[in-house]
Amino acid sequence: MTDSKDIPIGERLTSARKKKRLRYKKLSSELNIEESYLIALEEENYDYIPGGEAYVKGFLRSYSKKLNLDPDEIISQYIDSNYKIHKGKKSNYSYKKFESPTNYPIIFTSIGILLIILIFIALFQEASKDSIEDTTGSEPSEEKKQEIEKDTQENSVILKQIHQNSLSLDKIEEKKIIEKKEEKILSSTTTSTINIEVYDDCWVEVFTKKDRLLYKLAKSGDTFNFSVEHIKIIVGNYKNVQVSFNDKIVELGKYANTNQVSCVVLPLGDCSEFRTTNN
Hints:
The chain is elongated and about 100 Å long. The protein is α+β, with helices and mostly antiparallel strands. The protein folds into three domains: 4-86, Orthogonal Bundle (434 Repressor (Amino-terminal Domain)), CATH 1.10.260; 106-186; 192-266.
């Protein structure tokens, strides 16, 4: 008898679907997975599915469960086949610490802006004084009036631009201060405590910057605890899981997509930027 693991995943899914006489449209509606993704699973065209390995596993689990196939066995077979395909390949990605540009002291920037404003005010006053002296005892000509008006308008525009540049510089400095604070948080050596409690079936993946700490098709009652500086957590069926960070519950729904998959980086970060050689 042929071992079921010797039969390709796509063939097993297709055969089970046909036996149940199910159509892609009905399955897509019930599983909340696009028809094209179901077809891609049966064709084992995993690169077509966005989101990478985490989403493929979640879709395989939901689809195989719907077809009364063993989800754990299907996903285990996927991991084995995926490992064989990518065995020996090295990732060209390397984590680089963000380096913010050199910050100039705010006080020097403010002094420079103030000096520029004072210079233009002095020039404006000198031009006005010359205009008054030239016109003493006689009515200025129409040409002289137009010249004075033009100079006044130009000075007004220059002062307005200086003011706008001053506001822009203030925003830049404020952004740099925020970036420095975030960098300080990320570079902190303080160890954080993360607790994961599972209430029903789900899959959980946990990473640090360098390693995968956990990949598990979790069951009700499973608990996991970590003490690390920086961690990334991906959870399928996130409503079945509670994550606590330093005894404070993390709102996984805030970071979830329409497929009930939640990804969060603690204490700070973005899932698209926080990657490892394993994910």
